[in-house]
Structures are given as structure tokens and as C-alpha cells.
Amino acid sequence: MQNLTDRELIEIINTDKYDAELFKKADAIRRERYGTDVYIRGLIEFTNYCKNNCYYCGIRAGNTNAVRYRLTKDDILSCCEEGYNLGFRTFVLQGGEDPFFTDEKVCNIVYSIREKYPDCAITLSIGEKSKDSYKAYFKAGANRYLLRHETATSEHYSLLHPPIMSLEARKECLYNLKEIGYQVGSGFMVGSPFQTTENLVADLRFLTELSPDMVGIGPYITHKETPFFDKPSGTLQLTLRMLAILRIMFPHALLPATTALGSIHPEGRELGLKAGANVVMPNLSPMENRKKYAIYENKIATGLEAAQNVKELKESFEAIGYKIVTARGDVRR
Ligand code: 5AD
What we know:
Blueprint lengths: L5 H8 L5 H16 L2 E4 L1 E6 L25 H14 L3 E6 L7 H14 L4 E5 L5 H10 L3 E3 L7 H7 L6 H14 L2 E8 L6 H14 L3 E6 L16 H14 L9 H6 L3 H7 L4 E2 L6 H4 L19 H9 L4 E3 L8
Parallel strand pairs: 1-8, 1-9, 2-3, 3-4, 4-5, 5-6, 6-7
The protein binds 5'-deoxyadenosine (5AD).
The site of 5'-deoxyadenosine (5AD) has 12 residues, from loops.
């Protein structure tokens, strides 16, 4: 698939006529590399404060109606403890770009988790930072970093973000993270406002160049307290198609069936697994905060996405032939 021309890729992305073939091939490749294993990551959304103003995101600084919260270090450690007992061996600390969490605070939290859970992977997803900051977190014990590039076309990037943000800065962060030695995850939204098929092809090309360990994609979902309140959400079908294409192009990649996918369709995540995904990230955040971490509307927040219900999730996945495993789930290059 890497060898296809842009025109050929556009043709595949624009039609449903290859879907059955794509999903079949993606599932076969995933089984060859990762078997039927599904890795679980405990997601801890520890702050919804954000200094950025991305036009699509519900926790953007400009949304004065968002109810803000921060977890304390003790809160975070309790989430990890609960997660560990449930079988999680990766903790993902995700948050808005919140200046309250200085490098010192982040390192302190990471170090405490590292000390208590030497057998676990620690993933950070806290946005754009300096190379020195990334180095400090790595030294404190973080292993992985998630930072979606969102769109690999500069013009499109500037339609989704305020002028102070740039694709160039985002890319630089991603290359810095790789250089430091993190397992890096990037990704993009499917069906974000103004997105063209050419933009999606550019995303695939950029990922080929970056060669990340993880690729997170999910449908764009409208949030009414954003400048994009009247823009339609992305679709299930296109997201599944892009997942299958990613699996075929990047056999080694860890591909999550994301919460956004689970939020636009009741079986979104199961369908994601069938299209090549092999990771799910159930929510370990305290129940009362989950609704507040509303990057988009109607985010699922009480059912099978809850880490506490991992047993039910396991059963639902086993029914379609996949197996949730207790493991760090590192990349297999
Ligand atoms: N719909 C879907 N995904 C979104 N994200 C942010 N806002 C939305 C939205 N409205 C995604 C971005 C970000 C990730 C944490 O969530 O891709 O990187």
C-alpha cells in the first residue's frame, strides 16, 4: 500500500467498494503480527485546563462554559492503583496544556508512578513542550508519548488552529520525542472541518516519514461550545476505512480503537478491532471528572469504556474473537 500513488490512495479512500477487502486484509496482517491480543491502556485525564484554543476542541481555553478540574498527585496514584489491580500495565496521563503542571510537577508524578510500578509503561499526552522538558519526563520514567499531528497539511492545520500554533512546531515536537527514545504515537481526526481526501493522503505520507509506534485516529465529533459548532462530525465508515489502511501500511503499529469511535456508534470499538485496531484505552479517571473532560460531545462515560468494566469489555471482545491481555503491550517492530 506504501507503493500506491496519491491517485490510487484517493480512489480507495473515496469509495466503499474496497471496504470488505481492506478489512479482511487488515485483520489478517494484525493477526500475523499481534495475534488476537488487545492491549488495554488505563487513561487518566488529569486536567482539562488548556492554554490552547484549537477550534475543534471542547476544552479549548475559550470555552468559558467548561467546568475545569485538576487531579492531585494522590488522585492520580489512586487511579493507577485501581488500574493495576484491574490488570492495566500501561497508564496514559492525558491532559490539556495546563501551565499549572510545571515540568517539576510532571516529573514528580511520573517518578512516583515509576517507583511504584516498575513493570508498567507510562505514557504522557500533554501536548507541545520543549525538548528539554521531554528529556526530563523521559528521565523521570516516562516511556511513551502521544501527540497527534491532527493534519499534515499546513493550510488545513491553520484552519483548525489559531495562528500561534503551527504544523511545523508540532512536527518538531514529534521528531524530538523520537530522538529522545520515546515510543511515539501520532494521529489525526477523520472528517475534521475542511478536510479533503488529499489531506488524508498527506497524513498517511507524513506517518510514513515519521514511522511512529502508535497511530491514534478517531472521527471528529462536533462540540457546540466551539467555533465549529455547526460543522458536521466525521463518519464511522471513513474512520474504519482509514484504520484498515493504517494497519496495512503500518503492520507493526499499535492502533487504538478510540473512545471517539466508541462514541459515534455503540459498536464502534468492536468494529475498529475488526478493521485492524489492537488497543483500547478504557477510562480510569474518577467518575465525577469524566463528563468534564469533554473534548467533544456525547463522549461515552459510564459503560464499557470505563476501566472498572474491563470484564464486560473482555466478554464483548471475546464474542468477536479478540482477547484483552494483561501486558505492557510494547510495539513489535
Ligand atoms: N472530536 C474528535 N476528536 C477530538 N480531539 C479534540 N477535539 C476533538 C473533537 N471535537 C482529539 C484531538 C486530540 C485528541 C486528544 O482528541 O485529535 O489530539
